Amino acid sequence: MLEGKSGGEKAAGWFLSYKWFVDVLFGGIIGVGCYFKYSGRVWGRVACPLAALMHIYARFSQFRIFADKKKCISCNVCTSVCHQGIDVMAFANRGLSMEDPQCVRCSACVQSCPTGVLSFGRLLKEGKPLFDDLPASPVQMQEALKNAR
Ligand code: SF4
Ligand code: SF4
Fold first, then answer.
1. What pLDDT is stored for residue 4 in this prediction?
2. Using one digit for the tens of pLDDT, what is the confidence trace for 78-134?
3. Is 67's C-beta closer than 6 angstroms to any atom of ligand 2?
4. DSSP labels, 61-118
5. How wide is the angle at C-alpha 51 spanned by C-alphas 50 and 57, nearest 5°?
6. Residue 122 and residue 64 in contact, taking contact as beta carbons nearer than 8 Å
7. What is the side-by-side order of every strand in the sheet holding 129-131?
């Protein structure tokens, strides 16, 4: 007949219940509860230590995504493709450079913009943008080809 649980069984039981607790708390209650504010990246935006490190790097980074405001048709494609949940359109249709520390520079927004509004570049110390030489989206590639003819 079984008596009380051994130390190992108790530790395994505690570990399993801890895993359940973390899964239910982060994946369930907080994850679902915060979805509408933070989209699907609650851990990355709120609790990830790597994301915290990226915030520090971003403070010193000159990297920006620049927007040519007059080309923006406010279609929201850039915001909808950003898996980091960044409201790219809010920067683009005001002509502001995008410097959200959550940005992982995946280029999805730049590539998907149907009118070639967005470009990668660096913000120089004088406050002027320095655009990357290579066109970053199919629309910009077509524009560059047209201009070269
Ligand atoms: S995808 Fe391009 S045109 Fe559409 S809102 Fe974003 S920046 Fe503007
Ligand atoms: S480069 Fe990627 S992560 Fe950064 S804003 Fe655009 S879609 Fe989002």
1. 63
2. 999 998 889 999 999 999 999 888 888 899 999 999 999 999 999 998 889 999 888
3. no
4. --EEEEE-GGG-----HHHHH-TT---HHHHHTTTPPB--TT-----HHHHH-TT--E
5. 90
6. yes
7. 63-67, 118-123, 129-131
Ligand 2 center to 92 CA (angstroms): 12
CA-based nearest residue to 86, from 57, 60, 56, 106: 106
* Residue boundaries of the structural domains of the chain: 12-47, 62-144
- Run of H or E residues at 54: helix 49-60
C-alpha 132/C-alpha 106 separation (Å) is: 15
Which residues have any ligand 1 atom within 6 Å of their CB?
72-78, 88-89, 92-93, 113, 115, 117-118
pTM for this prediction? 0.70
Q: Which CATH class is domain 62-144?
A: alpha beta
Q: Which of 87, 104, 113, 137 to mutate to test the pocket of ligand 2 (most atoms within 8 A of CB)?
A: 104
